Amino acid sequence: MEQEIKNLIIYLVTLGLIRQFFREGKMDITLAEKLNRKNAEELACDCIPIA
Predict the structure, then answer these.
(1) Per-residue burial over 4-20, b = 16 or more CB atoms within 10 Å of its CB, e = otherwise
(2) Which of 22, 20, 13, 21 is nearest to 40 (CA)?
(3) How much of the chain is helix, strand and coil, in % rounded to 5?
(4) Does 51 score more than 90 pLDDT?
(5) Residues in contact with 10: Cβ distance below 8 Å, sequence separation at least 6, in sequence order
(6) How many helices (H) and strands (E) would you count in the chain?
(7) Cα–Cα distance for residue pair 48/12, rounded to 1 Å
(8) What is the pLDDT of residues 3-50, one digit of tens each?
(9) Can you give the pTM of this predicted structure?
């Protein structure tokens, strides 16, 4: 259970960074969605949409 919580926290922080890069125009939506999906898979979390 503790590892699941750590993974979720890591996922949410990373999601925030991906969203920030997307909003600032440093990353297009295709790459942002791909990174988000891959990150969710690696951390065994539910994928939350970028936009």
Answers:
(1) eeeeeeebeebbeebbe
(2) 13
(3) 75, 0, 25
(4) no
(5) 43
(6) 2, 0
(7) 9
(8) 999 999 999 999 999 999 999 999 999 999 999 999 999 999 999 999
(9) 0.90
